[in-house]
Write a structure and sequence with these properties.
Blueprint lengths: L6 H17 L6 H11 L4 H26 L10 H7 L5 H4 L19 H7 L15 H17 L1 H14 L27 H8 L13 H11 L4 H13 L6 E2 L2 E2 L3 H8 L2 E4 L2 E4 L1
Antiparallel strand pairs: 1-2, 3-4
C-alpha cells in the first residue's frame, strides 16, 4: 500500500521555490525539477497541484506588481543584460556579423586584467555607457538580449566551453583573482573602516552615521581566521560529491553491486503500514 502524500509539504516546496525564483531568477527552472521529482515518486496529482499553485501565486503576484510599476510582465528589468555579459567572454563579431545598430554591443576590453564579462558591464569600455538608461534601460536590455542570442547561435561550442569553464572555476584548488584583481578585497574582513563625508551624510538620513566598526577582541579572532584558514574549491567539490556518494549505501544487495539500484530505490520506493507507523523500502 502506498503512503499518502502530504499536500502541504508540496505547497511548502512550491513556496520555497518561488522565494528562490524571486530572489534570483536563476531559480526559475527549479520548479520543473521539483515537479519532475514528484511525478517520478508518484506523489499524486493533489501534491503536484499544491506545489504548482504555491509556486505560481507569489510569482504571478510579483509579475502583476512589476507590470504596475514598469508596464511589463517580467521578473527583472535587466534580464538579458547578464546573459550578454556571459557571452561577452567569447563573442567574436567577425563570426556573429551583427547588424549596424547591434554592432555597438561588440565587447571591448582596454584593461587585460579585467575579464571581458565584467568589462562590458561596469567599466568605461561598457557599451551601455552609450545607451540611454545604462544597464537598467529598456534599449540596453533589448540590444543585450539580441546580441547574446546571436552570439550563442553563431558560437554554440564557445558558449558551452565558457559555461563549463566558469562552473569548474568554483572548484579550482587555487582561486584566481576573478573577474578583477581587486574582487577578493570585498571578501576580506577589514582591520578598520572609514566612510567618506558623502556616505556618512547619506547614512545619517536613516538615523546614526551607519559606519561599519571593527570591534575587538572579536574582530581579532576573525582576522586571525582569515589569515590562516582557507577552503580550496576542490574540497568544496569533494563535499558536494560526497552527498551524491551517499546513494552508494543502496547499491549493494545480496553481496553484489547493483549500480542502478539507487535510482530504482528512489523512484520506486514502496511503503506499507504496520500499526500506526509507515515502513518504506
Amino acid at each position: 500500500m502506498a503512503a499518502p502524500a502530504a499536500w502541504w509539504l508540496g505547497a511548502l516546496a512550491g513556496a520555497f521555490t518561488a522565494c528562490a525564483t524571486l530572489t534570483r531568477t536563476a531559480g526559475l527552472p527549479l520548479i520543473a525539477l521539483v515537479l519532475a521529482a514528484m511525478l517520478i515518486r508518484r506523489a499524486g496529482w493533489r501534491v503536484c497541484a499544491a506545489t504548482a499553485a504555491a509556486f505560481a501565486l507569489p510569482v504571478a503576484g510579483y509579475l502583476v506588481w512589476f507590470h504596475a510599476e514598469y508596464g511589463q510582465y517580467k521578473l527583472a528589468k535587466a534580464d538579458q543584460v547578464f546573459l550578454y555579459g556571459r557571452t561577452a567572454a567569447f563573442a567574436d563579431c567577425r563570426v556573429i556579423r551583427p547588424r549596424p545598430e547591434l554592432a555597438v554591443m561588440c565587447p571591448k576590453r582596454s584593461d587585460p586584467r579585467i575579464s571581458r564579462s565584467f568589462s562590458v558591464m561596469w567599466t568605461p569600455d561598457s557599451p551601455f555607457r552609450r545607451i540611454p538608461g545604462w544597464v537598467y534601460g529598456e534599449d540596453g536590455n533589448r540590444l543585450a538580449g539580441e546580441f547574446a542570442w546571436a552570439a550563442i547561435k553563431a558560437q554554440p561550442v564557445d558558449y558551452a566551453q565558457v559555461v563549463v569553464r566558469d562552473t569548474l572555476r568554483a572548484f579550482a584548488w587555487h582561486r584566481q583573482p576573478y573577474p578583477t584583481p581587486w574582487t577578493w578585497l570585498q571578501y576580506e574582513f577589514p582591520e578598520g573602516e572609514a566612510w567618506s563625508d558623502k556616505q556618512a551624510g547619506l547614512a545619517r538620513r536613516y538615523g546614526g552615521d551607519g559606519e561599519t566598526r571593527v570591534v575587538r577582541p572579536w574582530a581579532g579572532q576573525v582576522l586571525a581566521y582569515q589569515d590562516h584558514v582557507v577552503m580550496p574549491g576542490t574540497i568544496l567539490g569533494v563535499l558536494l560529491l560526497g552527498g551524491l556518494a551517499g546513494a552508494a549505501a543502496h547499491a549493494r544487495s545480496d553481496g553484489r553491486w547493483r549500480l542502478a539500484r539507487p535510482v530504482r530505490h528512489w523512484a520506486g520506493a514502496r511503503c506499507s503500514r504496520g500499526g500506526r507507523a509507515w515502513r518504506c523500502w
